[in-house]
Amino acid sequence: MSQCNPTVLKQASAPGACGSVFEVLRHPCITPLHNTHHGGRLQVYPEGCEKGKGTHLSVFIQAQDDTWGPSAEYKLTVVNQMDASKSCTHGHTRKFTVNGQAWGYTEFITLPALRNPASGWLLNDTLMLTVEIAVHREGRFQLDTGGMPCDVTLKLACGVKLPVVSEILQLASPFFLCALEDVKGSGPIPVDGSLGVWNYILSDLFPQYDAPTLTLGSVYVLLPVVHKYDFTKLLARLVTFVKEKVEVLSPDLSFPKLNIICWLQLTERLQLDQLRDLCLGRLRSMTRKQVEQAILLPAAPSHAAGMERGVREEVKQLGPELCFKIVAIVMRKCAA
Distance between CA 255 and CA 122 in Å, rounded? Predict the structure, then answer.
């Protein structure tokens, strides 16, 4: 996946404004993508468009010629200039055409979060974005295996086919150790996960393959696939990474991949007890205001009476035991 140099949008501060106040750009910005080897344009709507108009930053990518092939995977990132681990990334695999159609997100980041000087998105009147593009030619993705013969093909839901070395998969995953015994030569094997997810998994298996940057957001997407296919050593490394970065998890619902409740839902669903306990520990370390923001509806009372009526639906959907522990944390915070 090729990555262009960061696109930097600068804005003039409002007359007389102090350094901590940002004057948001009023007009859409359309800029060519440089150093991607694929061309194209980045479209940024600082005040949003369509569904996100007036509420969100909207960001799109557009192909300008036929060099993008039948489909391409793209990642759009708004860089957090205070803490790179909090950068916001969205991506997808799409069939791009040359008729000017753009793909992207009308609701990329909420405008209140973007405008908050403490958030790190806008720094010195500058918004920084990066674009990553992986072009899929004829539905295939080429992996550098260091000369080892590929004897099995994995087929992703997006249609991309990954030729891989069965012996390497079997050594890394007890799941594939059993699954590949009877399927060699029988055609592509359907697997879950995006190309970005498998980019990281394969980079872990083949040292000569460049590993994408790991963030809590990417781990959130990686975990279900790594867990399902039982990549034991990689799972252990991901758990260690989360342990080192768990303080980044927050009650902010604007970024689901960094939201503490979303992480509790994920760890419970995957039955990752160690990660679940880490997330519970993070919740306990939050202030009362943060805990209430994460657990309670905006109009919920801040006292124990009637507390359950004010619990967010996402919390109620958790298992009874975990839900009880979370509500108990809220009650202890409110009683303090």
Answer: 16
Do the Cβ atoms of 217 and 257 come closer than 8 Å?
yes
DSSP assigned state of 336: -
Query: Measured between alpha carbons, how far is 278 from 140 in angstroms, rounded to an integer?
Result: 39
pTM: 0.56
Report in angstroms the alpha-carbon separations of 244 from 53, 227, 279: 37, 19, 12
CB neighbour list of residue 264: distance below 8 Å, 6 or more residues apart: 276, 279, 280, 283, 318, 322, 326
Q: Which of 273, 282, 288 lies closest to 321, judged by CA?
A: 273
Question: What span, in angstroms and rounded, lies between the C-alpha atoms of 123 and 20?
Answer: 9
Q: Any idea how long the chain is?
A: 336
pLDDT exceeds cutoff 70 at 225: yes
Amino acid at 213: T
**CA dihedral (11, 12, 14, 18) positive or negative:** positive
Residue 89: partners with Cβ closer than 8 Å, 6 or more residues away? 75, 76, 77, 215, 217, 218
Judged on CB neighbours under 10 Å (0-12, 13-18, 19+), 26 is exposed
In this structure, are strands 126-136 and 71-78 parallel, antiparallel, or unpaired? antiparallel
**Dihedral of the CA atoms 155, 160, 163, 166 (nearest 10)?**
-30
Both tokens assigned to 118: 């403490």
At residue 66, φ and ψ (nearest 5 deg) are -90, 15
DSSP 194: -
Report residue 93: phi and psi, to 5°.
Answer: -105, 125
Q: 104-144 pLDDT, tens per residue? A: 888 999 988 888 888 888 877 788 888 776 655 444 445 54
